[in-house]
User: Which sequence fits this backbone?
């Protein structure tokens, strides 16, 4: 399973993450090995508390692992950087900037010339159907629109990797499907490597080349499932639902462990 | 239509009733006119206080200057001048310090103890020292006003910087922003709602302090004028002066809130005014 060492885009080897809270040690991640090839779309799937967001944050460089190594194209992750653009569940757009200013911000940081920025922003506004909203502030946009802007902001960086932390979790079902299709279109067009955190089985099956199921605390890899169904995937098909059933089974076991912990009052999310 | 009319009327009903009652007190002679003059008398005095003293003379300067040559406009401009200068000194010192204290735990640790001891001292309590240091006139007044404006701006700026949502900083780091860029393009704008609130409170305090300081250290301005009027038992002028102070204060606050509403159009929690 996974790409062989050396050709990996993201290489996660023996990663551990221990949190210390009030003298207690909580192992959030344990012995995570994951190789992600260039252009691969990988979903991290699991119940809350399985450490999937912790793993994503470690790849992003926000919170480095306490053990093991994460390499991006052979270079170890030391800090956050624009080569790994991140899309957050809570959008995290800058409310004081307009749509186009939000998208342009990363390019300004890179110090690109004004004309190039304008051209790039224009292109992204078109790509994500945001042209009519370019002068608006985030507060005047719907959740789906905001997430489009957040995606455009990351795409502006031209980063080969996109990290997505439950990006569509707060959206209604229709908007969600709409953006999932949009994301698949962008991914095919722009050939990004995507690491996508979700707790939705259907979402992971609809989007990913591989779905990595994680266990509840300590987070380990329970199953690394390659999904070979042709796209666009039919969520009503028998094959899709067979996979869905299989993953539900796996996830339910972990959810049960999570619930037991919660009943004991030990779950700290 | 009916509702609109009522809305327009409802706002002036109580003030009208109050004025009518006040007029009644005077015309019936229930209250001594020296203690409480009638509204008409106050209005007459107000006009006399407001209007230019000399007839217009084109050789003496432009028309607008003549228009403002009355005692009241001169007083109001004097007070406003002190408020603005004092406010900009106080806020100008508080802003950089507040940004530094909010941003750096070290700076906060160094300055906070002193600030916490000085902050509860009302600006009024600095009056003796201000006269001792600066004598009489504008300097002690401006000193007092800047103290009044300093602390609200400082405290709100510190809180504003400390409360910047960490997710914005994470995005900034993710996009590769340097510390300087993070500060100028993320922390500073994110803190502006707090800073504006501080400025508005600071301006209000400055306006209170200017009246008090004029009563003690300056020989013009609205505060000086109503104290002077008391010496002559001109209660009508006192009341006219008080209403002027009230209207000017309202004007300043309106300008401040309009200004911040304009600059914070992006802000979600913005109240509709």
Assistant:
């Amino acid at each position: 399973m996974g790409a062989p060492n050396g050709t990996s885009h993201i290489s996660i080897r023996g990663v551990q993450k221990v949190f210390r809270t009030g003298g207690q040690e909580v192992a959030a991640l344990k012995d995570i090995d994951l190789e992600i090839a260039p252009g691969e779309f990988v979903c991290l799937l699991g119940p809350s508390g399985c450490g999937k967001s912790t793993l994503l944050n470690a790849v992003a460089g926000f919170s480095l692992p306490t053990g093991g190594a994460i390499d991006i194209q052979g270079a170890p992750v030391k800090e956050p950087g624009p080569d790994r653009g991140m899309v957050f569940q809570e959008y995290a757009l800058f409310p004081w900037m307009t749509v186009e200013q939000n998208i342009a911000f990363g390019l300004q940081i890179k110090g690109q010339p004004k004309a190039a920025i304008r051209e790039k922003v224009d292109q992204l506004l078109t790509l994500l159907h945001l042209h009519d909203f370019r002068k608006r502030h985030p507060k005047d946009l719907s959740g789906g629109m905001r997430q489009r802007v957040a995606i455009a902001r990351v795409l502006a960086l031209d980063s080969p990797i996109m990290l997505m932390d439950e990006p569509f979790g707060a959206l209604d079902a229709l908007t969600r499907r709409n953006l999932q299709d949009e994301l698949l279109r962008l991914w095919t067009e722009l050939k990004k490597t995507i690491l996508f955190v979700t707790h939705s089985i259907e979402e992971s099956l609809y989007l990913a080349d591989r779905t990595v199921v994680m266990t509840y605390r300590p987070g380990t890899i329970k199953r690394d499932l390659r999904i070979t169904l042709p796209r666009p995937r039919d969520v009503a098909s028998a094959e899709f639902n067979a996979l869905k059933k299989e993953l539900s089974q796996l996830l339910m076991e972990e959810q049960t462990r999570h619930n037991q912990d919660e009943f004991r009052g030990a779950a700290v999310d | 239509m009916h509702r609109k009319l009522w809305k327009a009327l409802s706002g002036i009903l109580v003030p009208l009733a109050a004025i009518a009652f006040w007029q009644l007190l005077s015309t019936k002679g229930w209250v001594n006119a020296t203690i409480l003059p009638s509204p008409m008398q106050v209005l007459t005095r107000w006009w006399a206080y407001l209007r230019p003293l000399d007839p217009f003379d084109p050789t003496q300067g432009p028309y607008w200057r003549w228009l403002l040559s009355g005692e009241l406009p001169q007083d109001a401009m004097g007070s406003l001048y002190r408020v603005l200068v004092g406010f900009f000194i106080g806020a100008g010192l508080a802003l950089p310090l507040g940004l530094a204290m909010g941003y750096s735990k070290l700076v906060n640790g160094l300055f906070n103890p002193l600030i916490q001891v000085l902050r509860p001292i009302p600006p009024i309590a600095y009056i003796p020292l201000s006269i001792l240091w600066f004598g009489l006139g504008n300097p002690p007044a401006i000193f007092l006003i800047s103290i009044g404006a300093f602390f609200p701006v400082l405290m709100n700026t510190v809180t504003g910087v400390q409360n910047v949502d960490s997710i914005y900083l994470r995005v900034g780091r993710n996009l590769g922003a340097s510390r300087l860029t993070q500060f100028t393009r993320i922390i500073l704008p994110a803190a502006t709602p707090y800073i504006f609130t501080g400025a508005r409170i600071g301006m209000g305090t400055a306006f209170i302090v200017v009246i008090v300081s004029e009563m003690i250290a300056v020989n013009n301005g609205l505060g000086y004028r109503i104290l002077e009027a008391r010496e002559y038992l001109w209660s009508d002028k006192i009341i006219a002066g008080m209403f002027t102070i009230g209207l000017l204060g309202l004007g300043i606050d309106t300008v401040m809130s309009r200004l911040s509403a304009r600059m914070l159009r992006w802000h979600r929690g913005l109240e509709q005014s």
User: Anything to note?
Assistant: The domain at 78-258 of chain B is CATH 1.10.3720.10 (MetI-like fold).
